[in-house]
Design a protein that fits this description.
The protein is α/β, with parallel strands linked by helices. It folds into 3 domains: about 15-205, Ribonuclease H-like superfamily/Ribonuclease H (Nucleotidyltransferase, domain 5, 2-Layer Sandwich), CATH 3.30.420.10; about 215-305, Orthogonal Bundle (DNA polymerase, domain 1), CATH 1.10.150; about 320-405, HRDC domain (DNA polymerase, domain 1), CATH 1.10.150. It is about 50% helix and about 10% strand. The strands form 2 sheets. The chain has a 6-stranded mixed beta sheet, sandwiched between helices. Strands 1-8 form a two-stranded parallel ribbon. β4 (about 65-70) and β5 (about 75-80) form a beta hairpin.
């Protein structure tokens, strides 16, 4: 582990970070007050630290319920996007200025919903991974670089609550207060370890990031494998959509309407030797929405056999690696050789192996070699087709060439 760097002259670890340096700002809850924020932010200097708080597990969807912004010379702004949902004036004020976020993919979508989109950014969590820090959560990164203890007990709170408690607002303000200093120290470490270009490409790729729309999201219902046959799978699907409809209508997280395990129980009950109009007894969530569950089951029963969903979706990619030795021993050997080289590189440079190359594009290129393989340029093009960044291809393509010519 040669590349992990620790800045010199750090404070003594363990000092609590309890209060914002400039005091706790008032929450922006009106258009009049919001009008002041762009002027202040435009008048500041340097990068802009940004964070958002959601109500995951409490509300339907991933909208932002608080947005925090801080810039040198502009102070910290706490904005209620429910009261003032259009933050595009702030977006124009920031312009091409650099955003600093921690775990950008958690917040980019909900920030875009309120009109905030970065033109350049620095992700402190991703930088921590590239630098080989043992823990990459914000609190751990703050303690590593600044020797300060940042409380995180409100990270999973219901941020849709109004009014927001003072302790929560203090926590939210502190989240962005330290990002600028951490970004500067990380920038030094990235340069000293020769990873600045790696980080630049990773951050640039995030500018076009968007959540992946899942095919058949209902197939992620926990316990689906316990339901037998296409008719049973159809029942789970209809129950899932019914739950999702209720959750969206009531703005409640689907799991708070009814748990996955109970959807499975309802489907199994319907498949058993029970009257068509009956449901499992003894659970309030089942009883409360019983008409909805029975309607969903009726829809599944009414489907023609030809319209039933398959029990399993056909795989579009290579088989699981555990099956390669039987199906394609040569590909299995090549994958093992490449993984061995990748692991050695990752350990030498103190970076998680999945950050050097994600498993899926690697498996696809090994299982179905690109035209021109085993030439290094062919593997470079093959990896590029799956979104692998240039710095990663420069490392991995020669490894693939070696594995295929061994």
């Amino acid at each position: 582990m040669t590349d992990q760097l620790v800045p010199a002259d750090l404070p003594v670890p363990g000092i609590p970070l309890d209060h914002p340096a400039d005091g706790l700002p008032e929450v922006v809850e009106s258009e009049r007050r919001l009008d002041e924020a762009p002027t202040a932010v435009a008048g500041g200097t340097g990068p802009v630290s940004i964070d958002a708080e959601r109500a995951s597990g409490f509300r339907y969807g991933q909208r932002a319920y608080l947005v925090q912004i801080r810039r040198e010379g502009a102070g910290t702004w706490l904005i209620d996007p429910i009261a003032v949902p259009d933050l595009s004036p702030l977006d124009r004020a920031i312009g091409t200025g650099e955003w600093i976020l921690h775990a950008a993919t958690q917040d980019l979508a909900c920030l875009a919903e309120v009109g905030l989109r970065p033109r350049q950014l620095f992700d402190t969590e991703l930088a921590a991974r590239l630098l080989g820090l043992p823990r990459v959560g914000l609190a751990a990164v703050v303690e590593h670089y600044l020797g300060l203890v940042l409380a995180k007990e409100h990270s999973a709170a219901d941020w849709s609550k109004r009014p927001l408690p003072t302790a929560w607002l203090r926590y939210a303000a502190l989240d962005v207060e330290v990002l600028g200093e951490i970004r500067n120290l990380m920038g030094v470490d990235l340069a000293r370890s020769g990873k600045s270009e790696w980080a630049r490409q990773e951050f640039e790729a995030l500018l076009d990031w968007a959540p992946t729309a899942r095919q058949d999201p209902w197939r992620r219902t926990s316990g689906l494998h316990r339901v037998k046959g296409q008719r049973g799978v159809a029942m789970v699907r209809e129950l899932w959509f019914e739950r999702d409809r209720i959750a969206a209508e009531r703005d409640i997280a689907p799991g708070r309407i009814i748990a996955d395990a109970l959807l499975i129980e309802i489907a199994q009950h319907a498949l058993g030797a029970n009257p068509p109009g009956s449901l499992p007894a003894g659970n309030r969530a089942i009883a409360r929405y019983q008409r909805s569950w029975l309607t969903a089951l009726d829809r599944a029963r009414a489907l023609r056999d030809a319209d039933l969903p398959p029990v399993n979706l056909p795989s579009e990619g290579p088989p699981p690696p555990r099956a390669w030795a039987d199906k394609n021993p040569l590909a299995a050997d090549r994958l093992a050789r490449t993984r061995l080289a990748l692991t050695a590189f990752a350990e030498e440079h103190s970076v998680p192996v999945e950050n050097v190359c994600s498993p899926e594009p690697l498996r696809r290129v090994v299982w179905t070699p690109p035209p021109g393989a085993p030439a290094t340029d062919a593997f470079d093009a093959g990896l590029a087709a799956y979104g692998v960044r240039p710095w990663q291809r420069e490392i991995v393509a020669p490894m693939l060439h070696s594995a295929f010519t061994a």
